[in-house]
Write a structure and sequence with these properties.
The complex is a heterodimer of chains A (164) and B (153). Chain A has 5 helices and 5 strands, in the order H-H-H-E-E-H-E-E-H-E. In chain A, helix 1 crosses helix 2 and helix 2 crosses helix 3. In chain A, strands 3-4-2-5 form a 4-stranded antiparallel β-sheet. In chain A, 33% of the residues lie in helices and 25% in strands. By secondary structure, chain B is of the alpha+beta class. Helix content of chain B is 35%, strand content 24%. Chain B contains 5 helices and 6 strands, in the order H-H-H-E-E-H-E-E-H-E-E. The two termini of chain B are 17 Å apart. Classes of the chains: A alpha+beta (164), B alpha+beta (153). The interface between A and B is large, with 81 and 82 residues.
């Protein structure tokens, strides 16, 4: 999908949130100078192309009672990491899963998975469960619980983002 | 205050439903209301209230930063305990730092940097290093396997 200037204006108009009105897309249209139908079509395009991952709400996990937030990191052989990552990403209690660049010697880990649980014991039992997945049994790993959150907001853009 | 204990069944139903997405149709709140057997005014009132109470951080789009031409990375620092609060303040002062968490490890500060351009990531890292005198370890994403990030309320 090509991002036009109008796509960018629509995106900028919804960046801080959708208006709580009966027809929010018509309101955004009025702000940007296009009709409701165009706003709906453009947002649908951006959702389909993956420019917007999701439209909806983002909850603070701690406020929902998920007090144990663990980043579980693994040092998986480069030739296996993609297959192992896919397996891990399919596990229902894994909330995020990425392959990242290692920073040796201090940081040998290349596979990152997040588990958000109600308490640490539950999360540690889930980590144990992950170690039983093929390719993860004897892999060096570390579990980093978060102790404090200093900041949490969505990524925002000061001005309409420039297309790639 | 424990916000969790103040969520009623209707709040939970709304959060669970809308984490899956918001309809892109002419009257989306009416559609959500119908699905949850509430009236439209109740849906918007509850959403405003949940945002005001900080249970929700936002109601709108989650972007794919890279597809928008932006930069996104995860970075970590080893911060001496005594300096921790001052360093956290310096890092959070950067508008491009989106999240910042303390974690139990030698690498004890972890934050996400989201920038308008990929090139700007290095600039933000350099500014944080100058402000704190500490090394920032950049751990960019190589591949994404799962990004559901949904929480049953």
């Amino acid at each position: 999908m090509d991002m036009t200037e109008t796509h960018q204006c629509v995106l900028a108009a919804v960046a801080d949130g959708l208006p709580f009105s009966p027809s929010p897309y018509a309101d955004i249209g009025r702000q940007v100078g296009v009709d409701e139908e165009t706003v709906i079509a453009m947002l649908s395009d951006m959702l389909e192309s993956g420019t917007i991952k999701r439209l909806g709400l983002v909850a603070r996990h701690r406020e929902l009672g998920y007090r144990a937030n663990a980043m579980v990191v693994w040092d998986v052989a480069d030739e296996l990491v993609d297959a192992v990552g896919q397996r891990m990403g399919a596990v229902d209690f894994v909330t995020l899963c990425y392959r990242r660049t290692r920073r040796p010697p201090d940081w040998p880990y290349n596979l990152f998975s997040m588990i958000h649980g109600r308490d640490r014991a539950t999360v540690l039992a889930q980590v144990d469960e992950l170690t039983r997945l093929p390719g993860l049994t004897d892999v060096p790993r570390s579990v980093l619980f978060s102790s404090r959150r200093f900041k949490q907001r969505g990524a925002r853009y000061a001005r309409p983002p420039v297309p790639a | 205050m424990n916000a969790e204990s103040n969520l009623d069944a209707a709040d939970r139903a709304l959060i669970n439903h809308l984490q899956g997405g918001f309809p892109i149709v002419e009257e989306p709140f009416a559609e959500v209301a119908k699905h949850l057997d509430m009236d439209e005014e109740e849906v918007t009132r509850r959403l405003s209230d949940l945002l005001a109470r900080g249970v929700l951080t936002r109601f709108g789009p989650m972007y794919h930063a890279e597809r928008l031409g932006g930069g996104l990375t995860l970075a970590a620092m080893k911060v001496p305990d005594d300096d921790f609060d001052a360093v956290a303040e310096a890092v959070n002062a950067q508008p491009e730092v989106a999240h910042n968490y303390a974690r139990d490890h030698a690498f004890n500060m972890w934050f996400v940097i989201a920038t308008e351009t990929p090139e700007r990531i290095a600039g933000v890292i350099a500014e944080i290093e100058t402000a704190t005198g500490l090394t920032v370890h950049d751990m960019p994403k190589r591949r994404e396997f799962f990004v559901g990030l949904r929480f049953e309320a």
